[in-house]
Batch of 4 targets.
Target 1
Amino acid sequence: MFAAWAVDDLYYLADIDLTYFTGGWRTTGFHPNVIDLTHTRWATGSAMTALDLVAAAIGALHMSPKANGEAYDLGSFGKGDKPPCPGCTAWIASVRSEFGWLTEIRNSLVHQTVNRGLFGGTDDPDDIRPNRTEILLPNGSKNPVRKVIENCRALAYRHVSGFFQAVIDGTA
Ligand SMILES: [Zn+2]
């Protein structure tokens, strides 16, 4: 249930992100670069949280409690722990094959590898979307923040609803 809220959180973020960059910025005191980095942290953090909450649910369903009382997360299942059912095993494999870029973007925020937007020079003086910050990854790819937010939302939605569907279908 909390995983679904983390997905809603990303829909909310995408809405207010759009509002800010299409004129809302005029009524706040915050610089667009600050908003870009904050929203990137929010998007990547919420997407990771949504996936970790599903992993915790899988752990609670199938695995013996951890000695230290901690919940399972995606990292737990990388260290040799395998859920016993095909639905959950497939879910973990699918998420792990896809979330590499999410980890890379989170790491890049720590290491400050961003290409800051240059604000100004758009046709519509209220709409500053074309000038947003890009997150640079070690492989050279440039990831505009709006795209990062939308990708985080899509990733979280797809995998949280995928897990719920597996529960409904009885394969989890
Ligand atoms: Zn299962």
Target 2
Amino acid sequence: MLSLKYKRMLKDRTILITGGGSGIGEALATILSAENKVIINGRNEEKLKKASAAGKHISYYVADLSKPDEIDGLFKRLKADNIVVDVLINNAGVTEPYYIDKKVMTSSQIFEKINTNLSGAIATTQQFIAQADRAASNLIVNISSAIVVFPAPSQLLYFSSKSGLHAFTRLLRYQLKDTNFKVVEVLPQGVDTEMSRGLGFTGKAPLPSTYARKVIRSINKGKIEHAFAGITPARLFNALIPNATLRLVDKMSQKLFKHQ
Ligand SMILES: NC(=O)c1ccc[n+]([C@@H]2O[C@H](COP(=O)([O-])OP(=O)(O)OC[C@H]3O[C@@H](n4cnc5c(N)ncnc54)[C@H](OP(=O)(O)O)[C@@H]3O)[C@@H](O)[C@H]2O)c1
């Protein structure tokens, strides 16, 4: 039986899920579309078309959130279509191994990746807040990563941008504490998606649908953070023995990811 909190939080909502064409975002969209109006976004229209066909209440808008004009354009289109969003899930993200002295990326590739994971999410959040009905209850869910407490050195750009998103989430929650905006952070770890497969993840990974159900349950219980078991000791190690933690995570990630 669903709790009252669940009904208030994620029922009869209008939910925008960035990066909703695959993986965790797609799974969230499919499940949430049973009781909500869901809008998904991404760059690849074919993926979005397929994902939106999974539920009758899913529509899609193509936009590259690493590009400021496309973020602004997305919200202009939503307004033109008379859509007011009351739940934003900042889920779009990209990662790849990056060793700054070995792999050369163009400056524009570096900007694109950081923009997708961080600046794009911040600009999208600002647009979301500007269009929201401030008298009603609103929810912002930022999907960061377990990497913010397990800093894998091989993922230099990803760690930097997701740590930024983690910091943004914390201060955003503080700034909005006396408003009708609730802020939640989700820190996934090893979910079986295009992203983890692309990194050659060899660990045991839950399906996106299993993970998405847990996230939804946690949000509906009123939690402001959904993370893995063991996050508290991991945070302690980071604070008390940061260099040893880095060495340990580097070793662990070399075992878990084939890309090294
Ligand atoms: N899977 C894991 O184990 C794991 C672990 C930690 C954190 N996460 C986080 O969870 C979130 C979802 O990842 P996932 O595992 O589900 O991977 P995924 O299947 O690769 O999904 C990422 C989505 O982001 C979209 N995207 C990428 N760049 C974009 C851009 N510039 N503008 C708009 N959309 C963009 C992609 O769609 P298009 O290609 O169509 O743009 C894709 O649908 C990410 O933020 C990721 O960092 C995942």
Target 3
Amino acid sequence: MADHCESPSLVISNSKTAIIGAGFSGIAAAKQLCHHYPIVFEASDCIGGVWKSCAYNSTKLQSTRKNYEFAEFPWPNRNDPSSPSKLEVLDYLESYAKHFDVLKFINFNSKVVELRFARPLVGNAGYCWPWDQPSQGQPVWEIAVQTKDSDNLKCYAFEFVVVFIGQYGDIPKIPKFPSNKGPEIFKGKILHTIDYCKLNKEAASQLLEGNKVVVVGYKKSAIDLAVECAQANQGAEGQPCTMVVRTPHWIAPNHWFFGLLFSFFYTSRSSELLHERPNQTIFRTLLCFLLSPLRRGVSKLMESFLLWKLPLKKYGLKPDHPFEEDIASCQMATVPENFFAEADKGNIVFKRASEWWFWEEGIEFDDNTKTTADVVILGTGYNGMKKLKTILPEPFRSMIDYPYGIMSLYRGTIHPLIPNMSFVGYVESVSNVGASELRSKWVARLMDEKFKLLSTEIMAEQTLREMELMRRRTKFFKRPCIATFSINQADEMCKEMGCQL
Ligand SMILES: Cc1cc2nc3c(=O)[nH]c(=O)nc-3n(C[C@H](O)[C@H](O)[C@H](O)COP(=O)(O)OP(=O)(O)OC[C@H]3O[C@@H](n4cnc5c(N)ncnc54)[C@H](O)[C@@H]3O)c2cc1C
Ligand SMILES: NC(=O)c1ccc[n+]([C@@H]2O[C@H](COP(=O)([O-])OP(=O)(O)OC[C@H]3O[C@@H](n4cnc5c(N)ncnc54)[C@H](OP(=O)(O)O)[C@@H]3O)[C@@H](O)[C@H]2O)c1
């Protein structure tokens, strides 16, 4: 690392704390850690993260305002049931950042390209046993930063690093194809939704209008894009947009009664009684077992409502799995009001396919059917793990997603074996901003030595049990999701910190 750094190679900053990323999570952390005068490194030239880099002109908040707010800074119109636009969401974040005066900590256009552990790797397993060893004011991590104005890297040293680089954005997930069946043989245009987000309104509608567009995916990015595509193709000259659906998941309408049912059965303290929690007592395990018919009944009730409200059967989009599996994996997307209206007009068509590949004129499916296309847009999601692994050094890089291939974090925040580093924004629940704010507060109290961590072994054991529970609850175990026990976990974290919710 030092070879590429500007001279003097190491900037020993006045701050002992670095924050990487200035999305919702990084800004929440800057507020909670402001008494440490952190240095925030942000790769782009603004705050907002995914709300700047991977949202469309039509993107709206899919959570309610109350479920997407900082406890210490409520939305001005928090009872308004309408969905705020991306500009309103960005305004809200900016107001928060200005209100708590955290913008002064941010170094924009400063991309962290490498982290290096500044201590000798010692201990039984060949690396330092973390968290037990006080840093005694000495640097633990070195950070190499690429800025816009120099070809050389700037290197900094810190005692504590908080990573908030986000699970989405930056690195798209691109499907793999058999040889001679990939993008290279397709005559049309191929892009990922992250590229589409960079287009202005005019360029976006030029791309879609009058063209046969295939959108791959059936989650929020793909669903919203299909609606934008349908709207650009109204009238006789319009072309239908084809959505390639690999797994139909339960999708939610923006409907007041659904919202009411959902909050009552899934986001209330009493609703968590029905669901297993990590590291629960035998008594609670028994209670959950006895209540499991009720839990399944609630799931069925939600399914019946959705099948009544949305034409899922008509379009072959009825999921094969229970509703509760989508909740336990944080997989549910909200559909814009006009999504099925556009399908009814024939402007959106659905193609179920487990496998697909390119041919010269379009896409071919595993049932030997083909469709022609001028443009193929991949709404296939993001590779957040790759983004993180790019900057983490070994042996930590290999530990971070061991053993399940997804982030395994104690309290959704620290890895028991990665010292003086925390990660926020990697667990999902119904209330992502609240979760990031609480975790940032927890990290701040930990750094202020307001409470002590459990031993490394106990934290590792509890983390594994939590991951095991998430895995048991859903076959779509792709990201850490605490939706069914987030209130309980927040209570536990508050107790640990000595505060109340
Ligand atoms: C389009 C979209 C809409 C969403 N809508 C909702 C919603 O309605 N409700 C909900 O609950 N959740 C939603 N989410 C989930 C969303 O990810 C979180 O709600 C939240 O905004 C994530 O914030 P974050 O700060 O953790 O990550 P991000 O917003 O991804 O911010 C990470 C920041 O880190 C910076 N960064 C990355 N790498 C580096 C580096 N190496 N060096 C320096 N800086 C770096 C990035 O530039 C970025 O600014 C949405 C996600 C997307 C993609
Ligand atoms: N507020 C908003 O309006 C908004 C807008 C956009 C995104 N978001 C959020 O941003 C996050 C990312 O969402 P996302 O929709 O971009 O990604 P995502 O949730 O990861 O969904 C990816 C989609 O692509 C499909 N897919 C992946 N590879 C495929 C392949 N090879 N063939 C066919 N289909 C494939 C997946 O199918 P499988 O299910 O089969 O894997 C899934 O339907 C989510 O948290 C989402 O809620 C929010």
Target 4
Amino acid sequence: MQDTKDMTLKEGIRIYFPKEELGRMVNQEGSRRQERFCAEKHLPMFAPKNGVCDFCHRPIYFGDDKHPAYSLEYAASHLITGCRNCGHSFVD
Ligand SMILES: [Zn+2]
């Protein structure tokens, strides 16, 4: 036991924000930001509105160690045309 405080903190986060729920919330927010960015720039939104890649079925805006995703900042400032995880193109 090297750092009990940290473990307690992690446990608390797990209780109040289950990883799946947090991921869903972050991913929805990413999709909203991309939608807003496209509307403001008058660009077509290529990324699926549900925020999930239709090829690998991973969240587009919420990744983990093995599955890269776009950050919320990126979603708010770039046109997303493909999945960061599998490289699948959302165009056409
Ligand atoms: Zn994908």
